[in-house]
Design goal:
The protein is α/β, with parallel strands linked by helices. The chain contains 20 helices and 18 strands. Helix content is 42%, strand content 18%. The strands form 4 sheets. The protein has a 5-stranded parallel β-sheet, sandwiched between helices. Strands 7-8-9-11-10 form a 5-stranded mixed β-sheet. Strands 14-15-16-18-17 form a 5-stranded mixed β-barrel. Strand 10 and strand 11 form a beta hairpin.
Length: 606
């Protein structure tokens, strides 16, 4: 294992790589202070140097190392009552549970909404209730509660409405509920202003008057806190006397799925949710999750990658181009046959979504390239009359990744009304800019958070909107993209990239948003094999000096600089950087490298 890095006048370069194939400077993750912290973590806790470096780079102090390696829900979970309105929400729902009232759940159409709905519905079912779940149609109903849906739920017998992952700004819809004498409890996590709708209780850690410090939670995480509080209240009321209380821990697989897929930071309570939830998922207790995992061909122990890139997109496919309610139905069903049927349908929809996405992305890519050539906007704004509004978020994400700037993709209907979704880069608050555009009259509606936002805009105002974004975000975008860097945790050889290392690194996981996977550099390894596989992926084999081989994959890189350098570098020594994972093939686990960048040793500064 290697950890020695070179220096330059801007900081510590890794292997002297000032400019890689992807135009990145490879720089050490650790600052001087963090390097000292890594040494303290290693010495005080008897941990290997590479694990200590990974932990220190992610802000772990030496005195917190033991607790970090074993995240505890008991330690990290706050008192639910610390959230504003939580006690009022718990009391109202507890009354409904004890009285056996009909409860309607209104959830969002993404994975966070589906898992939140499933968590609450399964708890209420355990309590003997038969809640109804309504997930709005993305195209027909749009985001959040709406009057007609509330009227239908009340007509169907609902006596209490609970909204999940939505509702914090649903003023008009809740006026309808009030006229129908239908009580409303909101459980949400989206950013909101000072004015809130008039409901029985509104639980949202991102309320401006909420000081709980839990604003990093996904809606499903807030929902789990809610049922913890509800469970406590029902116990205090004597509901469980002589009866088995629900097993809340059995719901953590759903909490983990929603947390990962909503891309909230995997820190603190979120990390504990996911750590425990992955262990529950491995037990394959939820029929729906098990069926969808099988349909997605998930093998080995579940990891955040499986949730975010294999399982989550299939649930989202229902909300994007099919029946938005499929995900919640899948996650709540107690029938394994129904679970398999829904999973197969979602898998089919995901394949259809991928085909539609490919066509849209080609069109959006061409439009973005032309815009950059002609006026180089700080924020890309693309749109078409032919696009599916359920897929625009994926297109925006692809454009953001390809061009390293915030991007929007907008689907316009026959009236010129556009439904758009945006994705941002670190350091650029897109949600704030969208809310300002609403205030300035450029948008009919819009909102979101720093990294993602949604909007509704008239087609004739698109040019003005691009000019607005360029004006208010140009400086932030320039600052965020001034330096292209790839942060490296440590240097390894193929020999050191073994299962023992992976087992050790797993203790510092799970990795995801806000808790990034470790990136390792492999110095001057011979490229013994490289070719193109699948849809433009490049696979390669790295050989260390002692002959140890490490297989790697470089996704969608056939026409990218680092992919080309690999293909042209057969038989040569190259510096390679990437993340490690375990690939289980035919029951045999092997370490695999996901290649992120490549550099020529002859062109470094060492």
């Amino acid at each position: 294992m290697l950890t020695g890095f070179g220096e330059d006048d801007k900081g510590r370069l890794v292997l002297g790589v000032a400019r890689s194939a992807n135009d990145n400077a490879w720089r050490e993750c650790l600052s001087a202070a963090e390097a000292r912290a890594a040494m303290a973590i290693s010495q005080q806790n008897g941990l290997p140097d590479v694990l200590a470096r990974v932990m220190a780079a992610r802000g772990v102090a030496a005195e917190d190392a033991s607790a970090f390696l074993e995240p505890s829900l008991k330690t990290l979970m706050p008192d639910p009552s610390s959230l504003v309105d939580m006690d009022a929400a718990v009391a109202r729902v507890a009354d409904a549970v004890q009285a056996g009232k009909k409860i309607a759940i209104f959830g969002d159409y993404d994975v966070d909404g589906a898992t939140s709905s499933a968590v609450l519905a399964k708890y209420l079912q355990w309590m003997g209730l038969d809640p109804v779940i309504h997930i709005p149609d993305r195209i027909i109903e749009g985001y959040g509660p709406n009057g007609p849906a509330i009227e239908n739920l009340q007509a169907g017998g609902a006596e209490l409405l609970i909204t999940l992952d939505c509702g914090s700004t649903s003023f008009e819809a809740f006026e309808t509920a009030s006229k129908l004498n239908l009580d409303v409890v909101v459980i949400d996590h989206h950013q909101v202003g000072e004015t809130l709708p008039d409901v029985r209780a509104l639980v949202n850690p991102n309320r401006q008057d909420d000081l709980s410090g839990q604003g990093h939670l996904a809606a499903v995480g807030v929902t789990f806190l809610f049922i913890v509080g509800l469970n406590r209240e029902l116990r205090q009321r004597g509901v469980f006397n002589g009866h088995q209380a629900p097993d809340l821990m059995a719901l953590l697989d759903l909490v983990a799925l929603g947390t990962v897929c909503d891309v909230v930071p995997l820190q603190g309570l979120n990390r504990a949710y996911v750590t425990r939830g992955l262990a529950v998922m491995h037990q394959r207790q939820n029929y729906g999750l098990t069926a969808l995992s099988d349909a997605a061909r998930v093998s080995g122990k579940p990891a955040p990658y499986h949730l975010g890139f294999l399982i989550g997109p299939r649930i989202n496919a229902g909300g994007r181009i099919g029946d938005a309610a499929l995900g919640a139905r899948l996650l709540t069903t107690a029938d394994p046959h129904e679970a398999r049927a829904i999973a197969e349908r979602l898998d089919q929809l995901n394949t259809e979504r991928q085909a539609m996405e490919a066509v849209m992305l080609e069109q959006a890519g061409a439009e973005a390239a032309m815009a950059i050539e002609q006026r180089d906007p700080a924020v890309l704004l693309t749109g078409s009359d032919d696009w599916h509004p359920g897929i625009v978020g994926l297109i925006a994400s692809r454009l953001k990744e390809a061009h390293r700037r915030p991007a929007f993709a907008i689907a316009y209907d026959e009236t010129g009304k556009g439904t758009g979704s945006g994705r941002s880069i670190t350091g650029v608050d897109l949600g704030k800019a969208v809310r300002q555009a609403v205030d300035d009259g450029l948008l009919e509606k819009g909102g979101g958070h720093a990294m993602a936002a949604g909007l509704t805009v008239r087609q004739e105002k698109a040019a003005d909107l691009e000019a607005f974004f360029n004006d208010v975000l140009k400086d932030d975008v320039e600052a965020a993209t001034a330096h292209r860097e790839l942060k490296i945790d440590a240097a390894l050889t193929a020999t050191g990239a073994n299962l023992d290392l992976m087992n050790m690194l797993e203790k510092a996981g799970p990795y995801g948003a806000g808790h990034s996977e470790p990136v390792f550099a492999f110095p001057a390894h011979r490229i013994s094999f490289a070719d193109v596989v699948g849809k433009g992926h490049v696979r390669a084999t790295l050989a260390a000096g002692d002959g140890t081989a490490l297989k790697g994959i470089c996704f969608k890189a056939e026409d990218k600089p680092h992919g080309q350098m690999l293909l042209e570098g057969r038989g040569r020594n190259l510096h390679v950087a990437g993340t490690l994972s375990i690939d289980t093939w035919q029951g045999t686990p092997k370490v695999q490298l996901r290649i992120l960048d490549v550099a020529d040793p002859q062109k470094t500064r060492l």
